[in-house]
Amino acid sequence: MNRRGRLWLLPVSVLAALVLGLLPLPAPVQGLRPYWLALVVAYWVIEEPERAGLGLAFVAGLLADVAFGALLGEQALRLVIMAFILQRFRTQLRFFPLPQQALAIGGLLFNDRVVAAALHLVLGLPQLPWAYWLAPLVGMALWMPLFLGFDAVRQVRRPR
User: Which residue ranges traverse the bilayer (predicted)?
Assistant: First the structure.
């Protein structure tokens, strides 16, 4: 595999996740929007720990805070917590079958919602509606196609 030829994939995937997070959705399904950025950061932390870690999570979170108009540092903190947990258990996660990985990612996305709710509570911000607690299930369902898609793009050999 030619790793140098795939250097563009990480920044492009983070940018695509930011764009997907900005796309407008109808009000009834707004709460079901998966946390695309967390899914992308999770993939890179698991698969490319040399290039992606707490720094990527922090910078991507700050970019998301600016792009979404959120409290500066909120998403950065949430993504850093997730990346830290992923780094800690990376060796075990890599050997899980994909359905079991999806369950672990779902747990991390649920943990992200708990952290967001705690931050909102401490800062006196309004709490998210109950439908937002269903988004980790959507993210969990999207983990396998996202993982397989990224792996397919990373593994493609360039013709010589």
Answer: 55-81, 102-124, 130-150
Pick the closest to residue 57 from 121, 134, 112 (CA basis).
Answer: 112
Give the count of beta carbons closer than 10 Å to the beta carbon of residue 34: 21
* Sign of torsion over alpha carbons 34, 40, 43, 49: negative
CA dist., res. 110 & res. 59, Å (int): 22
Does residue 54 contact residue 100 with C-beta atoms inside 8 Å? no
List the chain residues with pLDDT less than 50: 1
Write out the two tokens for 50.
Answer: 């040399």
| Residue among 25, 130, 128 nearest 74 (CA) | 128
DSSP string, 97-143: -HHHHHHHHHHHHHHHHHHHHHHHHHHTPPPPPGGGGGHHHHHHHHH
Is the torsion defined by CA of 111, 68, 32, 132 positive or negative?
positive
Q: What is the pLDDT of residues 83-118, one digit of tens each?
A: 999 999 999 999 999 999 999 999 999 999 999 999
Q: How far is CA 141 from CA 14, 84, 135, in A?
A: 19, 22, 10
